[in-house]
Amino acid sequence: MLSKHLRSKVTAVGVTSTLGLGLLTGCSGSTGPGAPDREITVWSQENLPDRVAATQKIVSGFEKRTGIKVHLVGVDEGQMPQLIMAAAASGKLPDVIGAAPMGQVWQMYTNGLLNTDIPKKIVSELGQRTFNTNALDLTSDGATRLGVPSDAWLQLMVYRKDQFDEKHLPAPDTYDRTLKAAQALTGKGHDGMSAATDPSDVFTSQSFESVALANDCQLVDDQHEIALASPQCEKAFATYDRLARTYGAPGTQTVDSTRATYFAGRSSMVIWSSFLLDELAGLRKDALPSCPRCKKDPGYLARNSGIVTALKGPDATEAAQFGEVTSWVTTKTAETAASREFIEYMMGSGYESWFGMSPEGKIPVRHGTAEQPNRYIDAWRHSDIGVDTRKPFDQVYPASLLNQLAAGVSNMRRWGISQGEGALVGATNGELPVPKAIGEMTGGQTSPSEAAREADDEVAALKKSLQ
Question: Tens digits of per-residue pLDDT, 315-350?
Fold first, then answer.
């Protein structure tokens, strides 16, 4: 589980293992632009079996239209940093990488592995105004386009609206309201909150960052100094400790256990990504809601859940939205013309099929074309969600929620990106200093202030090692 919430770590790793033997074959072997042989290698981090199959179908359409041969390889996101550096060292970089999260993009850019001229030309050709402005900003270094932003997912606070209504509690959109609700709804055999505490998973970092940003807790300040020991961050650590430990289930809480607890009706709130939405609606057999009333009515939990997309802490002036934008990037050895044609196809003729693989977690950041400004965002609203059962997104959830999700991309904020510290963000996703501090804190080994200082020291050391 990295920047997008994978359905199953075992499945994801299995796909990588299956494809691993051929992973670095058929790639460009030079140090400059690849020879124009109309043959490219594409690594995609949409590597679950159903998504690999869906992507291959799109690729086949591209090959038929253009005559360009594409070698598609599914790559596990957790292994990508090591694989890309190994490929660079051996002179076997792929031409294109898809579904690349911001931290990874910045790492590759900092290491001089990207061709940034191709994305600039693609965005210009497709029309800059057809893209979400914030998505473009988050995937650029000033005037330099690091990649072509494709789609996004958002972090959500999902809560039992029926239980909140019974106790006359407002939606948990502030620290105070969330803490009061967690306290009121915690009882024997029932937790007020399900929040990740696993020290070995970036999901914990994502969950905490969504809470931290709400209080204007930043990874680095405007002077590029590590800021995790700031008063705002200490407050964020203390709040997360109360939510996860005081009002949450005992023991280490993971991406799977947090979802399972909420789905079983044993907690009233869960911090998860928008990838949860199809499962919440009972559309995936291997992750069905299991609450007492869900067994006869799989849609019960979705109908009785409310969703908050942005949270606000006492030290912040406005609510904050956490999420991830994934992009198409081209490497320094990419075959220029063929790579450009491929990405333009994936952002044009193949775009609806691409985000249609999992619309709840692939919100299009290109809303339409110059002629049809809302073409893609409208298609996204009508796209089918689910795996074993497929239903139109806008028939499962109300328009108000879809509006929240679409608007959330414009309001998205992230640690370190706007300060130009994207490489550090990528490094923290590998070393996990914040999840480790969270794990110790919620395990009762350290206080929130100690956890904040520990995380600050670890990230500062990591930043120094990158210099």
Answer: 999 999 999 999 999 999 999 999 999 999 999 999
132: its two tokens: 């979400």
What confidence tens digit (pLDDT) does each residue in 193-248 have? 999 999 999 999 999 999 999 999 999 999 999 999 999 999 999 999 999 999 99
Are residue 370 and residue 274 in the same domain, yes or no?
no
**Secondary structure element (H or E) that encloses residue 106, with its range:** helix 102-110
CATH of the domain at 112: 3.40.190.10
Instruction: Find tokens 């893209």 and name the residue.
Output: 131
Coil, strand or helix at 249 = coil
User: Is 3 inside any structural domain?
Assistant: no
In angstroms, rounded to a whole number, what is the distance separating the alpha carbons of residues 304 and 301? 5
- Maximum CA extent, the chain: 66
Measured distance CA(411)–CA(418) in Å, rounded = 13
Q: What is the DSSP string of 392-414?
A: EHHHHS-HHHHHHHHHHHHHEE-
CB neighbours of residue 180 within 10 Å:
16
Q: Which domain holds residue 397?
A: 9-153+324-406
Cα(425)–Cα(213) distance, integer angstroms: 14
Listed in sequence order, the DSSP H helices in 242-280 are 255-263, 277-280
Residue 1 placed within a domain:
no
With respect to residue 2, please indicate whether it lies within any of the assigned structural domains: no
The DSSP code sequence of 37-94 is SSEEEEEES--SHHHHHHHHHHHHHHHHHH--EEEEEE--GGGHHHHHHHHHHTT---
Question: Quick one: 316 and 331 in the same domain?
Answer: no
Query: Which of 406, 425, 454 is at the close of a domain?
Result: 406
Per the listing, tokens 């081209």 go with 330
Q: Based on the domain organization, do 370 and 419 belong to the same domain?
A: no
Residues 274 and 419 in one domain: yes
Report the domain count for the chain: 2
* CB-based contact 462:428 (threshold 8 Å): yes
Q: How many CB atoms lie within 10 A of CB 8?
A: 14
Residue keyed to tokens 């009333």: 293
> Token pair for residue 287?
């992750």
Type of residue found at 309:
T
- Do 273 and 356 lie in a common domain? no
pTM of the predicted structure, to 2 decimals: 0.92
Going by the DSSP 8-state scheme, the letter that residue 313 receives in this structure is -
Judgement on whether residues 345 and 254 belong to the same structural domain of the protein: no
- Long-range contacts from 52-57, C-beta under 8 angstroms, 24+ separation: 52/15, 54/353, 54/357, 55/98, 55/354, 55/357, 57/353
